[in-house]
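Exercise 7. Predict the structure of Protein kinase domain-containing protein from Musa acuminata subsp. malaccensis.
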Amino acid sequence: MFKFLKGVVGGSGTGPKDLPYNIGEPYPSAWGSWTHQRGTSKEDGSSVSIFSLSGSSSQDGHLAAGRNGVKRLRTVRHPNILSFLHSSEAEISDGSTMKHTIYIVTEPVMPLSEKIKELNLTGTQRDEYFAWGLHQISKAVSFLNNDCKLVHGNVCLASVVVTPTLDWKLHAFDVLSEFDGNSEASNSAMLQYEWLIGSQYKPMELVKSDWGSIRKSPPWAIDSWGLGCLIYELFSGMKLSKTEELRNTSFIPKSLLPDYQRLLSSTPSRRLNPLKLIDNSEYFHNKLVETIQFMEILNLKDSVEKDSFFRKLPNLAEQLPRQIVLKKLLPLLSSALEFGSAAAPALTALLKMGSWLSTEEFNIKVLPTIVKLFASNDRAIRVALLQHIDQFGESLSSQIVDEQVFPHVANGFADTSAFLRELTLKSMLVLAPKLSQRTISGSLLKYLSKLQVDEEPAIRTNTTILLGNIASYLNEATRKRVLINAFTVRALRDTFSPARAAGIMALSATISYYDMAEISTRILPNIVVLTSDPDGDVRTKAFQAIDQFLLIAKQHHEKLITGDTNETAGTGVPSIAGNASLLGWAMSSLTLKGKASEHGSLASANATTTPDLTTSNPSSGSYADTASSAVNISDQPRPSSPTSTDGGWGEADSGLLQEDHDTDKEGWDDIEPLEEQKPPSLASIQAAQQRPVVHQKSQNTSFSQPKTAATRTSKAGDEDDLWGPVAVPAPRTVPHIVNVQPAAPKEDDGLWGSIAVAPPKTTSRPLKTKASAALDDSDPWAAIAAPPPTTKAKPLSLGRGRGTKPASARLGAQRIDRNSSGS
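Solution. The predicted structure, encoded as tokens:
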């Protein structure tokens, strides 16, 4: 057999050729005659540890004990016992001689003595880490003694190794044997190989080879003595050289001293069981041990315990040894989040621990877990991810964002929770720069189009803000198609004053993307009407924007005069210095998460009420109090749609958006009336402003005496119309059309009167209906409802009743009036 191995293996001296692992540099120390070396897998390059033991012949006593260790390590499995991967025995040439070598391949580990030097812990942190390690080794020894009825025989510092996650594991099973007090043959391995154990680690009964006494002792007697030796070597920092040194207890912590003395009792039967050491010792009750133990049995905890634990974990992690937190707690936390056993607050602790890593380590240890969490259906996890996206968003690659993150984040745009919709919207500030043009045009803009008509005013406002901030990431064709429509047709018409202000600032911030024709025909006419807005902040921003756009127009005019035609109409205009800061308040409102105290510190150019109103709150009534201070909303009837200003067409507009969402368009192509219907010239607007003065005089002279009250009502309605001077005048053929004014309760329609289709002509019969309906301005349906009954003494003078009815028959008369009017 050995000749066959010799022929296959060869004599390179670096290890057997058939071993599927590469052997690396050795560690300075190892247990017994073994050599502990680093290694890697030939298949995938993963790290391993390789233990090798050589002898001059196959019958060497060290090799025989080594084979016993290989067999035991392969068959005994426990979380605190070294994990076995592979073993091999070969005959290798060493110069002129042949050596028989045993190889054991295990998980990557490091000698405990080397790891202690590397960590260099002191004080409380050292004691906490030693407590955790001793806790693990005690569990391994207890498993062997109490559960398996096995005796390790040589528990000491050299028989303990440490994993990359800083877990302590027991190995060196060469002397491991069964323990049975009734069988004389049960200690065969111990009898054969007890000479491998150093005399300083042997208890008195083993030194004397009193096997009868050993069989009568409890199975943990020898290993409890070994635990005492391990404790001494740990806290003294020195290798035990003789048994008498164990009497020096000056290094042992006071809380551990009673248990230490019981472990080293001279009477084997009185030595402390390792199981009781774990359960009863006060030394093992510290923050590190309790934290790791909680994480390891996380699945057994209820939701209340988990929530409380993870909320305390970020502060607790700062008090624990940093390297233990990063190498032990962080992997446990990542695994718990990835497999769903951790609660949402655990993400805060994960990101805090991740902030202590280098960029490369963060991308390897934390980022993959975060990417997987985006696919979670747990709403609390999704909220936590979006709230902290600024902490890890920059580390995400464009490919990961486009292919793995955005498809899951986009579900939040249509979520029923307004709070989650807003968080999703805010996250686009971080994610949008990493999205491809196909995703932006084909998906993101569709969602933003729908959010601009969201029922929450703060979401509508922040959508406009977001569009202004991501405009630079849109291609030129998309900007031409989307920006002006989104800012003018929607934002400037919004009933929420901060949304109108955001539209003005977005136009100013994106001024470099518009050519002169767009500024003069589509932007300035829409901003000018806001100079008489009910909200002072909107008026201020409107005047500022007008000054900026007019400056651009003057520069363009001067270039035309001087003959400078280098800049064509479609090249876009240069931005004015300071435009970059116009959306500064918008950025703050997206990151301050609704704290009014922080919003108050924004630039003085913005009204203090504006930032407060741009962050939604899941609780009801969060806008009612503050909005009333900015705009007297009670004076303006609320339309059926949040952004509708055309008297009830908001639902139809929403329907169009729903259809467009399924197409390849972004959702703004259906709201381009300003391109399809060219606005009137300046002369037409000036003429429209002058006509109402002459027209009112003709109305006063044309009305007959019985209709003076109706005329006063019409005049009052015209005075309430803030935008009357720019409205298209009523047809001259029907001078009484002014009585139709109460039929449109939304006064904001006057904003677009100059470019709207003229009102339809009406006959004299609806004219009388509107005159009676004007008596009740609070009823939005008065314009289309049947006229109420009259109680005047002469109903026949109006040509509607059949005679005066008694007061008691009033209800019947009302039904007769409806039938007669409907006939």
